Amino acid sequence: MSVILKGNGSLGRMVNRATAALPQSAAGALFTITGGRVIVTSIIGEVTTVIQTQADATKLTFDPTDAGATQDLCATTDITADAVGTMYSITGTPGTALQDALNFLPSNKLLALPLILKPGSVLLDCAASNTGSVKWTLTYWPLDSGAAVVAA
Question: What is the longest distance spanned by two Cα atoms in the chain?
Answer without folding.
Answer: 45
